[in-house]
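User: My collaborator sent over this chain with a note saying "see what the structure looks like." That's all I know about it. Can you take a look?
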Amino acid sequence: LTTAGVALIDDVSATSLATGASLELTDSAQWDIFDAANAGVTNDNDLRVGVQGFGSLSVLTDSDVAAEEISVGLGNGGTGLINVDGAGSTLTATRTTTAGGILVFGDAGGTGTVTITNGGQLLTANTGGSANQDIVVGRGFFDADPGDPVNPVVRSNGTLTVSGAGSLAETSDLLEGHLGGVGTLNVLDAG
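Assistant: Without extra context I'll predict from the sequence alone. Here is the result:
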């Protein structure tokens, strides 16, 4: 941490929380992965939580996280959890390209769970000209050996829960259970 209480992350791979990694942002903390100069050029602007392992991110008490694309629970064995809680807490993804999803919860056999509570917000912005797949809850599956009928296919599982007054998931397009995945959307308690 710097003397101003800012964490400096200068390793591209640090934008992935996997293999047991957990991060909690509180008290108006900000993690801005999005760099407009590199948008759409590399994966440096992307946040991945739970890539072929466990990862979790909590965005609490007026804190903010921003990235170009966000994947939660990616790959066989990937389990990702994101919790955005409290008024002023936001998770934002901004698309600058025309392909794929901006936010994907549960992909390629992974399990992704995102919970927005108590006035937290999940926001998408689309500057890439494509108006589809902004949020995808449960996309695809993992099949280690398509030629082996005994080998089980692992379906992706995604869950998005928006709960509590003022809680919001804002997008122009939402897909639930896409391309063989299983998706669950819960809107509860005036969310």
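A starting point for your reply to your collaborator: The two ends are 35 Å apart (CA to CA).
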